[in-house]
Design a protein that fits this description.
Layout lengths: L2 H11 L4 E5 L5 E5 L4 H10 L6 E9 L8 E9 L4 E9 L5 E3 L8 H12 L2 E3 L40
């Protein structure tokens, strides 16, 4: 199974849902509309394309792009053909919500909770969407690029040893 075959199958089935596509490092990457992501992934799993394994769900943050500030990235794998696929869906920060895949893949449960925990993206229909790795009292999502990486007021570090 080739990337071209998978892409043509998706374009044929969901012509209005595919925003763009590319092949970084040989892996087909398809950007889709966020409202169609679950429907496309369900098709990839239940059709002859055989993407039965959800490898990863994670988030991404581009603060400089308000229309596509937050995104969810899904990695799928067709094990018999050893074909991998990346699906991306972007959304504005004030509408950071996408359908949950927990009814399609049981393993999506923890990955979606982790994405919510670190990026604040909500998954509609998730059975138990709550913080799992960070302190619930923290009050923010640490992977958002709105926080400094280091505390500039620290005096206990000598940066000359690190080339700064």
């Amino acid at each position: 199974m080739t990337n071209d075959f998978v892409l043509e199958a998706l374009k044929r089935e969901f012509p209005e849902s595919i925003v763009k596509h590319s092949e970084p490092y040989g892996m087909l990457t398809v950007e889709v509309r966020k409202n169609d992501a679950k429907k496309i992934i369900h098709h990839l799993k239940d059709s002859s394309l055989n993407f039965h394994f959800l490898t990863d769900v994670t988030g991404i943050h581009f603060p400089e792009n308000p229309e596509k500030e937050l995104g969810v990235i899904y990695h799928l794998h067709n094990m018999p053909e050893n074909t991998r696929l990346r699906i991306k869906a972007y959304m504005p920060k004030d509408d950071a919500e996408i359908d949950s895949l927990t009814d399609l893949f049981a393993g999506a449960n923890w990955m979606e909770r982790e994405t919510y925990d670190f990026y604040g993206i909500k998954f509609k229909g998730h059975p138990d969407l709550r913080i799992i790795l960070n302190d619930p009292e923290m009050g923010y999502h640490p992977m958002l690029k709105q926080y400094r990486l280091e505390d500039g007021t620290r005096t206990d570090k000598d940066d000359k040893m690190f080339g700064r």
